[in-house]
Design a protein that fits this description.
The protein is an all-alpha fold and about 260 residues long. The chain has 10 helices and no strands. α2 runs antiparallel to α3 (about 50-75). The protein has helices at about 5-15, 20-40, 50-75, 75-85, 105, 135-155, 160-165, 170-195, 205-230, 240-260.
């Protein structure tokens, strides 16, 4: 089970075949982006200030690319619409696109879901399709987590630290913690990219803090990627065995990187 792509990209994007359909062009593009920036990120020497300043830029590209790929695996119409607009001869990169993917709205819900999410009286606009919104949480993340836990309990395998960490939660905790963590990490990396601080950024983005953010981000994305292959409603699904393989490969890469940057 080898891949020319980074294991995190393989875990997030799943089984992309070798045809030249437009859907595979999109997923291959995202997979290449995740792979490229993951390799760049994990090659940084955080003790070096110049390297440390690059980390938020690389990390934001990874988290946005990964979440876009996961979004596209269950709502390809959304992703494909953006691709078609950007492929148009009339597309102008100097103008803000009305259809561009947005972190708030596409990844995190723009508004709080109604308490009774499945009430027949709710309007279509009440149903949120955000990747980490409560509706997708009920349809995808929570059932996927439970399926993964059933698989792990019925199959003998070496339990790594990340697997054991996943097993310590229930489905609600997994979803809520993932949603909260994604918001915090995106905000942290965005501040590092936009340099909105008027104080010395190095006092906030020290080597230990950047290392912690990077590890948390990669672990979060790896967990979402792993669970995504257990939900049964996404495209490009890997077998559970393959998904666990890439999950543990990603964990091992992070473990080695952490030892090198400590």
């Amino acid at each position: 089970m080898t891949s020319v792509q980074h294991p995190l990209a393989s875990l997030i994007c799943g089984d992309i075949d070798n045809t030249h359909s437009e859907s595979n062009i999109v997923f291959n593009r995202l997979s290449n982006t995740i792979s490229k920036f993951s390799r760049k990120l994990l090659s940084l020497e955080l003790i070096d200030e110049d390297d440390r300043e690059l980390a938020p830029f690389y990390a934001r590209n990874i988290i946005e690319g990964a979440c876009s790929a996961l979004l596209g695996r269950y709502d390809f119409f959304r992703l494909f619409s953006v691709y078609k607009v950007q492929s148009s001869s009339n597309y102008d990169i100097t103008k803000r696109s009305n259809i561009a993917l947005q972190w708030t709205g596409d990844i995190l819900a723009a508004s709080k879901a109604k308490e009774d999410m499945w009430n027949p009286e709710n309007k279509l606009s009440d149903y949120d399709r955000a990747l980490l919104g409560n509706h997708v949480g009920e349809l995808l993340w929570k059932p996927g987590y439970l399926t993964l836990m059933d698989f792990l309990s019925n199959h003998s395998m070496t339990k790594t630290a990340w697997v054991e960490n996943l097993e310590m939660r229930d489905e609600r905790q997994f979803f809520e913690m993932s949603k909260t963590e994604a918001g915090k990490l995106f905000s942290a990396f965005s501040k590092g990219v936009h340099y909105e601080f008027l104080i010395n950024a190095d006092s906030i983005y020290d080597a230990t803090t950047v290392q912690d953010y990077v590890i948390r981000m990669v672990q979060l994305l790896a967990e979402l990627g792993l669970v995504s292959h257990c939900s049964g409603i996404l495209v490009n699904n890997l077998s559970k065995e393959e998904a666990i393989y890439y999950f543990q490969e990603t964990e091992e890469l992070i473990k080695r990187w952490r030892l090198r940057t400590d």
